[in-house]
Amino acid sequence: MITAEKLQILSDAAKFDVSCSSSGSNRKNKGGIGNACQAGICHSFTKDGRCVSLLKILMTNYCVYDCAYCVNRHSNDTPRAIATPTEICDLTMEFYKRNYIEGLFLSSAVYKNPDYTMELLLETVIKLRKLYGFNGYIHLKGIPGADEKLVMRAGEFVDRMSFNIELPTERSLRLLAPQKTKKNIIVPIGLLRDEKSERLSFKHKFLPAGQTTQIIVGASPEKDGQILNLTQALYGKFSLKRVYYSSFVPVTESKLLPTQPAGLLREHRLYQADWLIRFYGFSVKELIGENENLSTEYDPKCAWALKHPEFFPIDINVASLEELIRIPGIGVNSAYKIISARRYGRLSLDDLVKMKISLKRAIHFITLSGKFFGSMQDTTVSQSLKLNAASETAEQLSLFSTPQIFSTVLTGEL
Ligand code: SF4
Questions:
Q1: Is residue 217 a part of any domain in this protein?
Q2: This prediction's pTM
């Protein structure tokens, strides 16, 4: 059995990887142990706000690579450990049976070489599925540079895989992670996408929960516009389920890196913009220029609305769904509520209040039966939006956050 000391090293070493926050996979028990359910694997949030699953572990933190930003880099003096496939399987089963976890997120540093590491990871997931009969959720990290046959084989046994992009441009990758290349990250993502869609046409399951990736924000000089353009391409061309952003934290000393953390507000704004791209029909071009950063003062939808007065005010009683969800403060749920309530008559301001539609931001951008209730003064509007934005803290989600932060981030009512 894996020792507590080893477990501490390997789970602690995994905490900076944020590409694993939910499952999205639904599979019934077929005689083994456990189910994967769409509600997602168990989550926990560490003190600094990072999302971790209860069994989120590296197979090893011995690494032959030397990525400047990484605590596990070869040249960093840190306690090291390695777990065997059997140890990881035993641990997963023991935790699962005790109801500590609902799945496994298994990653690894590059041990000896990419192929050897991927072989060990593959051996672990095959054992877990076939020998131990584990039917729960598995998210496996892909090792850039590993043989594609190993990667494809892994896709048959796990729910989700992720190859981390890490840095937004090849230039930054060359500088900060010289042993990695854009090619050996992007090629397997493309192959997995193709394999999944081919098997889907034969109704064969392959990576049912798809792929995700992680981008480190602020370790290199790329602006939010560049990062979001990359994100848009990853969703569009590679059908990724999620792109996660990890704000840079200096955990090692390197002349190549900033000395200050990138800050969680930047990460938060990127998640907000990402949400607008995925669920609100915004394109990156509308939100931000290639060489710009997102506003720190306003959330991305408010910033867009302030730049586009020609779009407003919008008449709540006639606007389409697409127009409603562009109003600051009105999210998809509120827009559907409005559209469904309109079937019974014209809506008044009181009706919106009764329907619990948040008007703090929206009031300056709407009319109701020709009446406008907001401020005509640009400065008053921007001031009140700024005050609303200031109520968002710059922290990542925590179990102990106030309900307001949950409603902003989890429901995406931007
Ligand atoms: S490959 Fe790079 S990022 Fe991954 S563990 Fe090794 S040093 Fe860290």
A1: yes
A2: 0.84
